[in-house]
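Our preliminary data section would be incomplete without showing what the modeling component actually yields. Below, a chain of 100 amino acids is followed by its predicted structure, encoded as tokens that our downstream tools consume directly.
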Amino acid sequence: MKQHQYHVTVQHLADAQGNPSSYTEKIEFNTGNHDDLFIVLDRLQKAELFDEETTKSFAVGLKLFGEVMLENKNHPLFKDFKPQFLEFMKNMKQQIKKEE
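Predicted structure:
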């Protein structure tokens, strides 16, 4: 499957109490997605479902998770969750179209 390619970086900034992180390393990886994440993000931002930072987190997390599930659709881990995820995606797309 052809995919858009991305580089993802996660840096721990602070702990749950707001103290600066003691971690110096970052989590970095390359990944692909069948969707253009910037188009997905733009559509979600226009729908104004969440604030700007939450929308970015939601879009990236959802699409990364969804791609792993799509690429491993026969993995037993996803067996029970896949139907609900597909229904969620369908409902989300309908919600976004209402907002367009």
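The chain has a mean pLDDT of 95. Residues 41 and 98 are 16 Å apart (CA to CA). Preliminary results of this kind motivate Aim 1 of the renewal.
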